[in-house]
């Protein structure tokens, strides 16, 4: 496929139906033969043939998805190559295009965190970006789960945020206590006297007990009244 230069918005690229990848193989370089004309891409448009069979239209969409999904890796690897081969010239070369160097640096940073053999073709570039700041073991763990359960990028982000939340911010754990029916009945009567549900009453009683315990512990640690030294049976003035 002929590539459109970013700084030439009026140039068009012909995307032929022969370039649609085989279904189910996102990395395939083998494309089935087309039966009609070509789609024509511009900087801000995609023009399709008047009579395009639905299977070609579907496969073209898949091809566009692959290009979009792969572009992050391509840009990242492209910039890394430039940094390695043209250390004194690559920034100037980028400045002559319409590409954003900061955006490219972000792509390159993610690409640099994952060697080609660690990139998951079933997950998007953005999935990898979500875990790029973690250590290798955690990266693989989260990507394994995202791949296994089919998490979206947003779902992965949500779960990482919950998983890395400090213990004090995590949701409270459930506590189960097995008691006799007689004791439960007594607790329910006591809760009713306070106008509380049983669970709320239990929490309030426990909190009160903790407050009493803390007060007693503080009192035990506090120094007692000062004793005045005496001389000849009389306190010193």
Classify the secondary structure makeup into a structural class: mainly alpha
Biggest sheet character: 3 strands, antiparallel
Shape: elongated
Order of helices and strands: EEEHHHHHHHHEE
Q: Strand arrangement, largest sheet?
A: 1-2-3
Question: Termini separation (Å)?
Answer: 103 Å
Enumerate how many helices there are, as a single number: 8
Radius of gyration: 34 Å
Strand runs, count: 5
The quaternary structure here is single chain
Would you tell me the overall average pLDDT?
A: 76
Helix content: 40-55%
- Runs with pLDDT <50, length 5+? 1-36, 226-237
Beta-strand content estimate: 5-15%
Characteristics:
3-stranded antiparallel sheet; two-stranded antiparallel ribbon; 51% helix; 5 strands
In short:
The chain is mainly α and about 240 residues long. Helix content is about 50%, strand content about 5%.
Architecture overview:
With 237 residues, the protein is mainly α. Helices cover 51% and strands 7% of the residues. The chain is built from 8 helices and 5 strands, in the order βββααααααααββ. It has helices at 54-85, 90-95, 101-113, 125-131, 136-149, 153-163, 181-194, 198-221, and strands at residues 13-16, 38-42, 45-47, 230-231, 234-235. The longest helix is centred in the first third of the chain and has 32 residues, at 54-85. Residues 1-36 and 226-237 have low confidence and may be disordered.
Write the layout of secondary structure elements.
Elements (H helix, E strand, L loop, with lengths): L12 E4 L21 E5 L2 E3 L6 H32 L4 H6 L5 H13 L11 H7 L4 H14 L3 H11 L17 H14 L3 H24 L8 E2 L2 E2 L2
Antiparallel strand pairs: 1-2, 2-3, 4-5
